[in-house]
Design a protein that fits this description.
The complex is a heterodimer of chains A (about 290) and B (about 400). With about 290 residues, chain A is α/β, with parallel strands linked by helices. Chain A has ten helices and eight strands. Chain A is globular. Chain B is built from 13 helices and 18 strands. Classes of the chains: A alpha/beta (about 290), B alpha/beta (about 400). The interface between A and B is large, with 44 and 47 residues.
């Protein structure tokens, strides 16, 4: 191999990655790496001080993201990255704290933490990679699995109603809510950039292909087939009513930026309120 | 590890009339705790209430979380940001905390948790006392790990030992517990808070070397690794998975052996420096009463009566219940007829005494299911039986 070819093989996102941990564990055709690339692009474009960005993941395939990203990175317990991030943010308010985890982690086992962090308007960004199943454990049904999809613990097809995540985030008070698929690389990047610049609880859902489990079990083909499905069935509707965003099995996926509003964060509310009530005796925190 | 004087902002110097729960909050503030995440649960709630009331004047955060799982997760996050953090709870909440207590042990993060024990199992006796979480604190989360647990017997000790708990937690990068109970928690007594410059506070060992050389889990001479804060540019990684010195996950038996031995050894090999107990009249004693927390105060009456009856009774009151003073029990076992172990459970620490005595002396329990303290006569009866 010629030297110049070798140079071209370097990962363009190297400065954002722990190259000593590559290769990663994700399957060929998986969409998680795509979202990580978008995240890295967004960091680059945001021109943000990377020393002040922390990433927190839970458990699962997407839970492994924290381990590959060269930031202060925390791989926590299943479902708990949001309360962990809450403590981290409140411990050092100058940090930009990003929770990067899967649907099972964030709205399955961690659903309670999700709704409360959104309600408090905790100043964190939550990126939820939704692959419609529990993949790390071998493809079990999830709180996001569309009705009818077949998974190992729904061997005759799923009959539970799934969550509509943007609607949930909106109802709980999130200040920024967007949904994209792994096909919408540049739009994911842009959303992450916008959310990084925003104060308050931001939520970005990214629908991604799980080729090894979800797609194989449902005979949906490979990664390319799934991207084709996204291409043919996703419909960009910025500002859409979040109540209308349910996802049916192989049905239409409405994507876009649905919510972008201003609201004081938890810490801002705390400082404003206590200053008003206690006057000069109050010791402001993290301002 | 750096010894400093307490930050006067958090120290309410003077003589107060406080209950144990309030004294824990004051101890935490004096120790420099500036982050409290908790969930209300009887009989521990007063600590959270006191902290919520006081922290706006000191500078810090009180946050009421959605549950106890979230509370401990938040403590670990805040501790990685460099802030001393604590929570309080009781039985059912303590059960929920177990998951992230394991994470704190694995990530080697200093946090302090007070358990104001009530009668269990399950919802049990929300408003009445118990001491039946003594094994749960030691073994409650899955896997092999070590923790430190202290047991105060008065509001004054709630204050003093909360500071000690923070100091030990920082020194050893380990979750540290204050195992009190409803009686001590709700007992009002005089609590003397000294001036800030008389309170010794220990800060964790901050790493100060070159950034690219930092290894979050490289043991120092005392086996405790140096720590850094999130946001300081080290770009470190930490995980609940089995990991190497870099904090990187390594999933094999060799790394498991290194990682698990490390988190255990740093406490076991330093146990002699951590363990504290109060011993009285054990020289020439026939019987030694081993007790902790509220039960040690109830036992005083029985011990006085037994001495009046001519029995040579010594006492060993555990300040640190974990790590357990194994060696001291072993030495005493060779010299005495029997141990008597009163406790408000069905024999959790009695069994530990029996194990450490190696068959040299029996450990006679005085079990109690909780709801109230012992009748001193029951303890006296056991002492008399032991002396026979």
């Amino acid at each position: 191999m010629r030297e110049e070819d070798r140079l071209e093989e370097r990962n363009p996102m190297e400065e954002f990655l722990r190259m000593d941990r590559i290769p990663h564990i994700w399957c060929p055709g998986c969409g998680i790496g795509t979202v990580v690339s978008s995240f890295a692009s967004a960091l680059r474009k945001s021109n943000i001080n990377l020393d002040k960005v922390a990433i927190v993941s839970g458990i699962g395939c997407t839970g492994r993201v924290a381990g590959y990203v060269r930031l202060d990175s925390f791989h926590t317990t299943h479902g708990r990255p949001i309360p962990f991030a809450t403590g981290l943010k409140l411990g050092n308010p100058e940090l930009k704290v990003v929770v990067f985890s899967g649907d099972g982690d964030i709205v399955g086992i961690g659903g309670n933490h999700f709704i409360h962090a959104a309600r408090r308007n905790m100043d964190i960004l939550v990126i939820c990679v939704n692959n419609f199943n529990y993949a790390m454990t071998g493809g079990q049904v999830a709180a996001t699995t569309p009705i009818q999809a077949n998974l190992s613990t729904a061997p005759y097809g799923n009959y539970e109603y799934p969550f509509n995540l943007p609607y949930l985030a909106d109802a709980c008070g999130a200040t920024y809510v967007a949904r994209w698929t792994a096909l919408h690389l540049r739009r994911v990047t842009k959303s992450i950039q916008e959310a990084l610049a925003k104060k308050g609880f931001s939520f970005i859902e990214v629908i991604t292909p799980c080729v090894t489990l979800y797609a194989r079990r449902n005979r949906l083909g490979d990664g390319l087939n799934l991207l084709k499905y996204y291409y043919e069935n996703s419909d960009i509707q910025h500002g859409a009513d979040t109540r209308t965003l349910d996802i049916s099995y192989q049905g239409k996926i409405i994507v876009g930026k649905f919510i972008d509003r201003e609201k004081p964060t938890f810490l801002e509310c705390m400082n404003t309120h206590l200053k008003k009530v206690l006057g000069d005796k109050y010791q402001p925190y993290g301002e | 590890m750096k010894k400093v004087k307490a930050d006067p902002k958090g120290v309410l110097t003077g003589a107060h009339y406080l209950d144990g729960d309030f004294a824990i909050a004051e101890g935490a503030l004096a120790a420099g705790c500036r982050f409290f995440a908790g969930y209300p649960i009887t009989p521990s709630t007063e600590t959270a209430e006191r902290f919520a009331e006081r922290i706006p004047y000191v500078g810090g955060v009180f946050i009421q979380m959605e549950d106890e799982i979230a509370s401990v997760a938040a403590l670990i996050g805040a501790s990685w940001a460099g802030v001393k953090s604590m929570t309080v709870t009781s039985g059912p909440g303590f059960s929920l905390m177990m998951e992230n207590i394991g994470l704190a042990a694995m990530m080697e993060v200093p946090i302090v948790i007070a358990n104001v024990q009530r009668g269990g199992p399950s919802t049990g006796l929300p408003t009445l006392t118990g001491q039946a979480d003594m094994m749960q604190v030691r073994w409650g989360s899955h896997g092999d790990y070590e923790i430190i647990a202290l047991s105060p017997d008065s509001p004054q000790e709630c204050f003093d030992l909360t500071i000690k708990a923070f100091n030990l937690s920082e020194m050893y990068r380990v979750p540290t517990f204050l195992m009190t109970d409803e009686c001590v928690g709700h007992m009002h007594e005089k609590v003397v808070i000294p001036p800030a410059d008389e309170i010794e506070v220990i800060e964790r060992k901050w790493y100060e070397g070159p950034k690219d050389k930092y290894r979050p889990y490289k043991p120092d001479k005392d086996l405790v690794p140096f720590m850094v804060k999130a946001g300081d540019g080290y770009r470190f990684h930490t995980t609940g998975l089995t990991h190497d010195e870099r904090g990187y996950p390594i999933i094999n038996a060799e790394c498991q052996d290194w990682c698990v031995r490390h988190i255990n050894d740093k406490i076991r090999k330093n146990a002699h420096k951590i363990i504290e107990y109060r011993e009285e009249e054990t020289d020439g004693a026939e019987v030694v009463v081993v007790s902790y927390g509220i039960t040690s105060r109830v036992a005083v009456k029985a011990i006085q009566e037994a001495r009046k009856a001519g029995i040579k009774v010594g006492t060993l009151r555990l300040i640190t219940v974990w790590p357990f003073p194994e060696e001291r029990i072993r030495e005493l076992a060779k010299k005495i007829k029997a141990f008597v172990v009163p406790e408000i459970n069905l024999g959790q620490i009695r069994r530990e005494v029996e194990r450490c005595a190696f068959g040299q002396a029996p450990a006679i329990g005085v079990p109690h299911c909780g709801g109230w303290v012992h009748d001193p006569n029951d303890i006296l009866k056991a002492i008399k039986e032991a002396a026979r």
